[in-house]
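Protein entry
_____________
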Amino acid sequence: MASAPTGFATIPIGAKAGLLVLGLALISAGYYFAMHMPLADEIDQEVVRRMQLQSDLAEARERQHEFLRVTQELASREAIDRQNKRVLPEDAEIPAFLQDLNRLAELSGLGIQLVEPRPEEVAELYIAIPVTLTLTGRFHQVAKFFYNMSRLERAISMQNVQLREPQAEGEGVMLRIDVQATTYRRPAEEGAAQ
């Protein structure tokens, strides 16, 4: 004799399907709450973090561009300052100035009769350093000397030019030139700040 089936086999098919759906629903709910929700929260946090990092990166790039611009501007200003220090040095540099005067006079063919440095004259933004010169030579040599002086990097002005005692000599006329060559320097930093 055959025994009657017991347990799960005796449950009707509709109830079995309901149990199967209930089991799948419990597994799905367990997966959703245990696995999916924490991952979704973590993804949302990472999206916010990614947006923050992108914002930080954009800000860093902007700062980098600003830094490069400021660095280039600083380098440009330093180059201008170096050029300005050649034109208007901080020290008197009288020996170098007198050496330039002598070299250019000889290059132009002039004779130097007198070189007399004068006391410095203080102005608000600069200090003038005058030197009285007496030169001898022909007119075109004097013109060449003044032209060569204008080509120097240092700021120099030629003032009170007087042509004296012209004397016929050979094919030309020799002149005696009295001139005040004035160069300039910057005042000390304390004075410049005031």
Notes: Residues 13-87 form the longest helix (75 residues). Residues 94-193 form a domain with the Alpha-Beta Plaits fold (CATH 3.30.70.60).
